[in-house]
Fold:
Amino acid sequence: MKKHKRDVIISYGWSFPSLILIALMVVFPIFYTAYISLTNMNVYHWFDFAVVGLDNYFRALFVFDSGFLSALFATIVWTVVNMVLQLIIAFVLVSLLNIQKLKLRKIYKTLLMFPWAMPGYVSILLWKTGMFNTQFGLLNQWMKKLGYEAVRWLSNDISAFICCTVVNLWLALPFMIMIMDGAMQSIDRSYYESAILDGADWLKRTRYITIPAIAPIISPAVIITVFTTFKQFDVVYLLTQQAGAKTGSGFHTILTYTYENAFITNNYGYSSAISIIIFILLLVLSARYQMKEGDR
Amino acid sequence: MTKNRIKEGIRLTALNIFFIVWCFIALIPILYAASVSLSGQNGLLSSEFSFIPKDFTLDNYKEVVFGENILTWFKNTFFLAVVTVSLSLLIAVPAAYCFSRRRFPGRKGILKCLVLLNSFPAILSMFAIYRLLRPMGLINHRLGLILVYTGTMAVFSLWNTKGYFDTIPTEIEEAAKIDGASDIQSVLMIVLPLAKPSIITTALQVLIYVWNEYIYATTFMTGENKYTLAAGLYSLQATEMRGSWPVFAAASITVSIPVLIIFFICQKYMTSGLTAGGVKE
Structure:
């Protein structure tokens, strides 16, 4: 009995530095955010803020032109569009890469990994200046050559959304390709051989062998990617919403919207309320989809 | 027979052409930046574009390497990275070991909370952290950033190393104990060397995080001499109004090279370490 108690103390003793840091830098700020969300704290009320109850939540959820709901809707559309495109493109590329007689496969794979290896924010900034910029951007140099006017790609909602999607796909595809490639190589060749003997065409083999075989293997990675896409900040922020260099697009994901309210328009109470709403949303979603990993 | 061969040959050639074109298109942003970073300023104005730099020059790189700012930023980043990585490992490894090997009340609950916390984007509590650190004088101070970075990565570090410890069979330690090794001895001499891949992955992930993090670094630090490389690069970027695109391109390439090298050397470690630690049924 006594030894047991000592054991517990030792366990917590060794874990203490890690746990206390998490408590102070991760958990406590969340509670503090929850507290701020109940106040009217902003630039004018930095010290003399008052508790206003659930007003901020009410404004976020029931006042339609507050912007939160449209940002949430845009984020959902963004996640769906990105995931569908990512899965389809990665699947096609990986199927082609796995055609048996392709000898240069390794070189292609390495080249395709490059966007993943680059620091993300550097790539995004290079896209912003190198591709989309009106003066130096390649896209506009090509437009000029074809005799069109220069286009401000990032200045309207729809084209900004498309540009962000392209960049996000560029950044995310390598990971998806790697995961799918690993999964596809784990399929036993003999399935295909007997399917071919039975006269199944490529479409049928894909439908009845490839997809069912890789689905369970890639699903954890896909779920993780859904979450990271939903929580995307860098792409949208760096391309269109940088403090002091906004391009005029109104496309926001929920995270850039929260950042904007905290650090640009300085509505701290309101921004904190959105943070808490997003946090709860993520908690519910990850309890549903990611908790299984923790059960061990 | 030969007809089939020819057909197959054509198909393979088409496939190869497809991949060459696809890879080329995918690499255009990087190739373009590389080419611009090596060309003189006037090369930009001509509308004829090519991937081979015109007026080949290393001036932009000279400006990057010998410009005083970048060296300061590099020093700042280096300092932050070393402290953050060592601190992260120092606190994560013992905790991960306890959570992997020992059974104590509260263990399961804490682990579940950690999974949930992992899904919480750090940006959401940025303002709260700002407000908490400001009265302590930690805004615009390196210590503030170190605390933020170590804290943000603490959940990941703990979880990742714990996941790997789980895959090391306990029998090895038990055998060592029978041979008379103490608890700490068996951990230091047996478990840690075996856990090297996951420790390296964790360290690299933390390192790359610090190297690439710009939003805290620009929001919490003011004054260019306190910037990290990421924050500095962010402030250098060429917009429609200001900045030099060739110098920015050169700086981007310079900052990316160490990360590229780490990535391609450690690709095996990265992927195996990550999948062993994070995703498992």
